[in-house]
């Protein structure tokens, strides 16, 4: 017998980001595939959006290749992964300068 699990959630919905911001930790127990649709607007910012993983929920590591630089523009990107083995996942806006006018991250996680 196999158990299927899926979650869909808006994990960041922010305006006027002027410092680092992160989503809540997402429990990836029984989930192996994920995607994060990231939508932002800005005219004066420099930041990096990154997806991080953790096994203990306290120490976080950036998932290689799962980052998006944003600088004085607006746009969107879909970051995704398969065969996720960590316990926790989160999305972080690593702020460098200026202001991100708005940032929305829609997250979907699924079991196989």
Provide a descriptive summary of the structure in words.
With 112 residues, this protein is mostly beta strands. The protein has a single domain, classed as Sandwich (Jelly Rolls), CATH 2.60.120. The chain is built from no helices and seven strands. Strands 1, 2, 3, 4, 5, 6 and 7 form a seven-stranded antiparallel β-sheet that branches. Strand 4 and strand 5 form a beta hairpin. The radius of gyration is 14 Å and the shape is elongated. The two termini are 13 Å apart. 23% of the residues are buried.
Give the C-level CATH assignment. Answer: Mainly Beta
Largest sheet: 7 strands, antiparallel
Strand content: over 45%
Shape: elongated
Overall mean pLDDT stands at: 91
Number of domains: 1
Which H/E pattern describes the elements? EEEEEEE
User: Given the structure, what is the number of helices?
Assistant: 0
Computed structural class: mainly beta
Residues in helices, as a percent range: under 10%
The CATH topology label is Jelly Rolls
Summed up:
The protein has strands spanning 6-17, 21-22, 26-27, 33-54, 61-71, 75-81, 88-110. With 112 residues, it is an all-beta fold.
Spell out the blueprint of helices and strands:
Elements: E1 6-17, E2 21-22, E3 26-27, E4 33-54, E5 61-71, E6 75-81, E7 88-110
């Amino acid at each position: 017998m196999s158990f299927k699990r899926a979650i869909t959630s808006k994990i960041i919905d922010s305006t006027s980001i002027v410092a680092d911001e992160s989503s809540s930790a997402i429990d990836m127990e029984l989930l192996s595939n994920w995607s994060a649709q990231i939508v932002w607007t800005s005219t004066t910012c420099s930041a990096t959006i990154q997806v991080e993983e953790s096994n203990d929920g306290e120490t976080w590591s950036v998932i290689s290749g799962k980052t998006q630089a944003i600088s004085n523009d607006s746009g969107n990107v879909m970051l995704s992964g398969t065969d996720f083995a960590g316990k926790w996942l989160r999305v972080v806006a690593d702020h460098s300068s200026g202001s991100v006018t708005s940032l929305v991250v829609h997250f979907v996680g699924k079991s196989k």
